[in-house]
Write a structure and sequence with these properties.
- The chain has 13 helices and six strands.
- By secondary structure, it is α/β, with parallel strands linked by helices.
- It has three domains: 36 residues, no CATH class; 203 residues, 2-Layer Sandwich (Nucleotidyltransferase, domain 5), CATH 3.30.420; 108 residues, no CATH class.
- Strand 2 and strand 3 form a beta hairpin.
- It starts with a helix and ends with a helix.
Length: 395
């Protein structure tokens, strides 16, 4: 909005007849506009783009069986959140509770201290640990316990205020934030009393409570916070076959990806290139029943005459599978999949789908330009050899 208000060229592009500094619309309008396009809508456009470039063939594959290659992989699109810690999360919860208390305090009949604890002291207790370069584990645990006590006492004070006020005292968004605060307090209490207990749907960010920690186990990024995507690559075009903020085993998506491939082309792929996690018993049985070759070593001890052939085939498969790694890298480095800036879960999924759509559109343009210039080069070469036949002898 600031760029449009300051740039006359953008205003002319938008159809304005004269320059104006007044915003054309409120910034929240962009959020409502993004909500109109769901991730499924963008995926349908992506499918249509592929069909326009690669129209379905009337002739079945040779032999009437399977055809083509399906490459599978999974990645995480990190959300725009800071690395969460229990102490910083609880401090943010305490500040949010205090803001809600300030909102309803003037509408209540109570007077005196707004909270049952000293806000300035609670802030100082947090900063005492947060400013340390490397705090000890015992001190951090004590600070977390203190901040959790402050949050629970603040929620109790807020409940006492809301009990005597009508429900419309808080807006819908504030009620949602209050529910998130209560969930965080409950989860942190469970974790503090039993650190080994598993906490389902753990909240790591107040503004984006749908974001979950996803354990990756990779160097530099053992845990990522965002949405997990299941990619499939066909003829250089990328499709999102699975998308969720909850962690999932990508090995269970192979059958669904193969079925989607059959819907697109009318037959199953001839081979599926995937890493080790996809080679479970169920997927192997599915591929065997439908005549699909799944990359990777065969079960059992290989025979002496098959060992060298299997190694060569595995090497070719690993080379062909590199395309999905390159598509992941291009999507993150060039198109912004490495940081999703949308806050809502629906718009964040749409943003990830738009990244894939833009990447496929660029790939389509590159393919068309490559074909165009290759044909132009052949025509130019033919014309030169026709009018200058002596050049053919020199060549």
């Amino acid at each position: 909005m600031e760029n449009i208000s300051e740039n006359p060229y953008l205003q002319y592009f938008l159809g304005l007849h004269e320059f104006q500094t007044k915003p054309l619309f409120d910034t929240s309008m962009m959020t409502y506009f993004r909500k109109r396009f769901t991730a499924d809508d963008v995926a349908a456009i992506n499918e249509e783009l592929y069909r326009r470039v690669h129209p379905p063939k009337d002739e079945p594959p040779q032999g009437g069986g399977n055809g083509g290659t399906l490459v599978l992989d999974a990645t995480v699109a990190p959300a725009d959140v800071r690395y969460p810690t229990d102490l910083s999360l609880l401090n943010e919860c305490r500040e949010n509770v205090e803001e809600l208390i300030d909102t309803v305090w003037d509408k209540s009949e109570k007077r005196g201290h707004k909270t049952s604890y000293n806000r300035r002291k609670a802030r100082k207790r947090y900063l005492k640990i947060a400013k340390l370069r490397k705090a000890k584990r015992k001190a951090v645990k004590q600070a977390v316990s203190e901040q959790l006590d402050y949050v629970e006492r603040g929620l109790s004070d807020l409940d006492n205020l809301l009990a005597a006020l009508p429900k419309d005292t808080l807006k819908h968004r504030q009620w949602e934030r209050l529910a998130t605060l209560r969930s965080v307090a409950e989860q942190q209490r469970t974790h503090l009393e039993n650190p080994q207990a598993s906490i389902p749907d753990r909240i790591v960010n107040l503004r984006q409570p749908h974001v979950r920690p996803i354990v990756r186990g990779k160097a530099g990024h053992p845990v990522e916070f965002g949405q997990k995507l299941g990619f499939s690559v066909v003829d250089g075009y990328t499709f999102i076959d699975a998308q969720s903020f909850d962690n999932f085993n990508e090995g269970v998506t192979l059958i669904a990806s193969a079925e989607k491939y059959k819907v697109r082309f009318g037959h199953y792929p001839e081979r599926i290139l995937a890493d080790t996690i996809y080679r479970n018993r169920e997927n192997r049985r599915f591929c065997k029943e439908h005549g699909i070759r799944l990359s990777g070593p065969r079960l059992g001890r290989p025979k002496a005459d098959e060992l060298e052939a299997d190694r060569e085939m595995a090497y070719r498969d690993s080379c062909d599978r590199n395309i999905v790694e390159s598509r992941n890298g291009i999507a993150k480095r060039r198109y912004g999949l490495d940081r999703i800036l949308s806050y809502l879960s629906c718009t964040a999924k749409t943003e990830a789908a738009l990244v894939v759509l833009a990447m496929n559109a660029a790939h389509c343009l590159q393919t068309l330009l490559r074909t165009f210039f290759a044909r132009m080069f052949r025509l130019l070469r033919f014309a030169i050899l026709r009018f200058f036949p002596d050049l053919a002898v020199i060549q």
